[in-house]
Amino acid sequence: MDEPCSVACVAYIALGANLGDPLATVKAAIAALNQLPQSSLVAASSLYRTAPMGLTHQPDFINAVVEMITVLPAPTFLAELFAIEARFGRQRGVPNAPRTLDLDLLLYGDLVRCDAQLTLPHPRLHERAFVLAPLAEIAPLLIIPCLGAVSDLLAQCAEQQIERLH
């Protein structure tokens, strides 16, 4: 990117899918993220299989986390994520319901924000091994604002079962 480093932000995005062909969907979504304007894909975690949380009578999820660099403002970046979800047939409604694709903005630099439009860091990332394991894989030394080290948070979720696929 030609923009000065002072205007670029590191963003971490969690991906999840459990409808259709979730493995293919997550891989295609990573490719779609790599095409976002004024943004670059830095790293992608392995893929993980996890049991659903909340509404448990549904297929397992395929999850991953990516690291990106972007100069888009956080709300614009989030809108781009929602547009990708829509292209993959995502319909918002019941929380924890099955979905074709879920893209969650976990972190946007060290921004801490809580309003009707956006909450950063993601409000439940510290409770979810299916987010923390892939995040720790690509950013093992990451300190999450207001929450602490990703490795410490992952250790607190040790009872949650996840399977690393590749």
Automatic annotation (TrEMBL):
CDD domains: HPPK. Pathway: Cofactor biosynthesis; tetrahydrofolate biosynthesis; 2-amino-4-hydroxy-6-hydroxymethyl-7,8-dihydropteridine diphosphate from 7,8-dihydroneopterin triphosphate: step 4/4. It holds the Pfam family HPPK. Its EC number is 2.7.6.3. Catalyzes the transfer of pyrophosphate from adenosine triphosphate (ATP) to 6-hydroxymethyl-7,8-dihydropterin, an enzymatic step in folate biosynthesis pathway. PANTHER family: 2-AMINO-4-HYDROXY-6-HYDROXYMETHYLDIHYDROPTERIDINE PYROPHOSPHOKINASE. This is 2-amino-4-hydroxy-6-hydroxymethyldihydropteridine pyrophosphokinase. It comes from Rugosibacter aromaticivorans.
